[in-house]
Amino acid sequence: MESTYLLGLAWIAGMLCRSLPAGVTWGWIWPLLLGILGAALSRRRPALLRTWLIAGLVGLVAWAYLGLRTPVPGPQNISIHAPQPRATVVGEVLTDPQETRSGRVRLWLRTTQFVPENGSPQAADGKLYITMDADVLEGKDVHPSQTLQLNGSLYVPSPCENPGGFDFRRYLQQEGAFAGLSAYNIEVVDEGQSWGGWALRRRIRGALVRGLGEEEGELLSSMVLGARAAELGFDIKDSFREVGLAHVLAASGFHVTLLIGVVLSLTQNTPLRSKQLIILVTLGFYVLLTGFSPPVLRAALMGLAASVVLTEPMLEGRIRLEPLGALLIVADLLLLLNPTWVNGLSFQLSFVATLGLMVGVKPITERLTWIPEGLAVPAAVSLSAQVWTLPLQLFVLGRMANYFLVANLLTLLFILILCVAGFFVCGVSLVSPYLGSLMAAPLRFLLEPLINLVAWIASWPYATYYAAPTSWAQCILLYAALAALAFWPGWRNRIRWQGTALVMAAIFWLPGFVGRGPAVQITVLATGRAPVMVVQSHQETVVINSGSEEVVDFDLLPFLRQQGVRRIDHAIATTAEGIINGGWTRLLAEIPVRNFWDGEEARVSGPYTQVLAAVQANPGIQYQSLSVGDQIPTRSLLDLQVLHTGPLVLSLTAKPQSAESATWLLLGTADRNVQTSVLQNTALRPTQAEWIWWDASALSRELLEGLQIQGGVASQTGATPPEPWFQEKGRPLLSTGQDGAVCWFPGVDIYPCRACS
């Protein structure tokens, strides 16, 4: 059994080695080194020594197998035609249309034909990511298996532009796609099939929405069949995620376990073969309804194996199902089927959560004797799953839900009743949607309290903990500590769970204390023409401009969370333009702000009044309008002085103890007239500014020469150099449109600092 576990783990580890830094090139070395190291430590046990050597080779094969199965664009792939501002694409719809967070609609297409503007049709293949405005679909019933003709802009997906940001290009590549199409018109060429898993999901969803209303109906659809079966609002999704209940909205092992339990309880008096057939058909049908997601496939295969062992008399007393072995075999089989799943977060979370339940529920329950017996097991289930998924959450997502245990215990009864009842209602809805709607209606009295309860918990202070970046080495060490506690008796008896908790805390916290990073760091985010800057020191955080709400959601908030920022000390709006500072209301709802500053002209700007109203309505924020010459009261490492208002122009001096001070001229959106005014104000302006930051508009050469500018950062959308003066003088100039986010700290030049989540 030991050898079987080792070889099974080697298959998974070999694939994961390809995901490490430089893993595509040098990742093959790690499984071989681990195999040789294990063999050296096992030299007194020849059988185990051979197993370690074989495991190293298995890991090497797995590394190579993932490389062979990783999608690459072929000679006719649609991506070779990108970019094309106006193109026509024909293909088969693969997924139901779904709303994105930005309010657009997305779907996946299997391309069959490409027609360039004023060109002839060409054969094409490959998956294509489609987005469009909602009104493009008005009056059209788009569903999988249809053939569509779409007109739009064909583009190459952009890489991650900001630290902590979403890597769109990597996401598409993991899905086997290398291009996207922003469509403005679609036509149905062929209706395709009128049946399939999508049709069953729509039938169930329609019945639930008619019986419960849109919000409650979509929630129950998601709770029973997963995210693919529902169009759940992002506010509800966010609330469930923030309190640690995201697993409830995604079809997973939790749902499969409940479903098997319901089937077994209903078939107690059914003949054996009939019972096994019912379980097999039910699990297969549920996998079809949920869209063959990896967590459901994993749980269904394990549930099927467990059901056969438990119900088959011929196996009674002869075979004892090893849960860990079954989990490992199922994971290996799934990765043999589709090795790219190894990099999917849903597969990873499903695997480690199930492992946590197997090794953690029993010992945790034994230590919860001080709480009622009916709550001990649910609490143990929640704790074990959360603890085993925590390292992965911190590494990939950079966050954890602080009230996950409270939320799981308070909502447990609601969720169990709704899921079990939902299974019955879904079954009835397949036969008679009208009857399903009638049966679903009473569930409103449980769904509404559940929504309100989750929203209430999510509103508690510090509901979500956002951590600073966690490295892959920390993630591996955290799991090594958990594995030692679960599988190493010596560790378990000497270090115990208390010592393991301290070890894990040290692994997580010590790197941050030992290497705290630079005393001052300035980051200019890639946010188009909206100039957005974040200034961080060991003592405070300053955010200059918010950008639009979309910029806040997709650029600024992810960066602040990736940096572990839990409070903004100074929020500064340099102008009242909505595209540059219209997102403060959204940001204020997510992160506490102590001080808010703007210029005098901002008070009379129409679009800016909503931001001011939100700021002034918050008793925790001190608001002040700045005048020329004002000094923003920052701490010792930073000096911020106002050089001009309307728009605000600031000078920022960083004064770290370990390096020479440096001054930034923060021009923002200042035009030439403002630049001239700043240059002429010799009483306030600095005599020299090493760096300048502006929105890529025209610069005054007199200003650049007068302040002896040594380098610049331009916030812009395109890659065209915004100011030739820097090239003429041989001085560094970076633009966010070409280089992505730009970082600086004392003692170094500006540099691109893209780092994806």
List its traits.
24 strands, 7-stranded mixed β-sheet, alpha/beta, single chain, 8-stranded mixed β-sheet, OB fold (Dihydrolipoamide Acetyltransferase, E2P), 757 residues, globular, 28 helices
Short précis:
The chain is of the alpha/beta class. The protein contains 28 helices and 24 strands.
Kindly describe this structure:
This protein is α/β, with parallel strands linked by helices. The chain folds into five domains: 2-69, no CATH class; 78-194, Nucleic acid-binding proteins (OB fold (Dihydrolipoamide Acetyltransferase, E2P), Beta Barrel), CATH 2.40.50; 200-311 and 407-466, no CATH class; 472-514, no CATH class; 520-752, 4-Layer Sandwich (Metallo-beta-lactamase, Chain A). It is built from 28 helices and 24 strands. The strands form four sheets. Strands 15-14-13-12-11-10-23-24 form an eight-stranded mixed beta sheet, with no helix packed on it. Strands 16-17-18-19-20-21-22 form a seven-stranded mixed beta sheet. Strands 1-3-5-7-6 form a five-stranded mixed barrel. A hairpin with a 5-residue loop joins β2 and β3 (105-116). α1 (2-17) runs parallel beside α4 (46-69), α9 packs antiparallel against α10 (272-290) and α10 (272-290) packs antiparallel against α11 (294-311). It starts with a helix and ends in a 5-residue tail after the last strand. The relative contact order is 0.07. The mean pLDDT is 88.
